[in-house]
Amino acid sequence: MIPILIGLVIAALVIVILIRRFGTRKVGSPTRMFVLPPVLAVVGILQGDLIDGHHPLLSEVLLGVGVVAALALGTGLGYTLRLWRDDTGVVWSRGTRLTIAMLVATIAVRLGLMATGFALDVATGTGAIFMFVAAWLLAQNTVITRRVRTIPAPAVSVGL
After folding, report:
1. CA–CA separation, 147 and 83 (whole Å)
2. What does the pLDDT read at residue 157?
3. Tens of pLDDT along 86-138?
4. Cα–Cα distance measured from residue 102 to residue 72, given in angstroms and rounded to the nearest whole number
5. Strand 25-26 vs strand 82-85: parallel, antiparallel, or unpaired?
6. What is the CA radius of gyration of the chain?
7. Which run of H or of E encompasses 17?
8. H-type helices in 52-125, by residue range?
9. How far apart are CA 64 and CA 67, in angstroms?
10. Cβ(93)–Cβ(144) under 8 Å?
């Protein structure tokens, strides 16, 4: 029952992320943007199934490759978003067609890692998925935060 519940939580999280990336929305504060990734990482660690006890080295390699891939894909996705500042200074974002491609690539890589683990008889638990999503979001949010800093502030007129 617990694996089914965890699977549903992960699916719901992915759906929320997809909806938030494609709609026009305000970019959150940097503090708010960096809350979810560490929470997901802690949940992943607490799952207790990050490393397969029967194949620890292969399991660690797959986990490491997954985290590095998630960081790269999240970085790429962060650069595909269209960012702009409105007249009031609020920063907005919206996904592009390239964002869709990055999301498809992300899902393909994650499924590929799971298939590789299955082919090598390495158990891949939900903890690895949580770590993947945490790294992916961390990279995206880092890129978005850096890009927001480069968007010029709206001109302020001073009346004399």
Report:
1. 8
2. 60
3. 988 899 999 999 998 998 899 899 989 988 988 999 888 888 989 999 999 99
4. 10
5. unpaired
6. 18
7. helix 2-22
8. 56-80, 97-119
9. 5
10. yes
Cα→Cα distances 23→3, 56, 64, 90, 155, Å: 30, 41, 32, 16, 26
Q: Domain locations in the chain? A: 2-150
Element (H, E) at 82: strand 82-85
Please name the residue that has the structure tokens 């158990």.
123
Beta bridge partners of 91: 85
For residue 84, which phi and psi values (nearest 5 degrees)? -155, 160
At position 87, the amino acid (one-letter code) is D
The residues near 65 (Cβ < 8 Å, ≥ 6 apart) are 113
Two tokens at 79?
A: 């650069």
Sheet holding 91-94, edge to edge: 25-26, 91-94, 82-85
pLDDT tens digit sequence for 13-68: 777 777 766 778 888 888 888 998 999 999 989 988 888 888 889 999 999 999 99
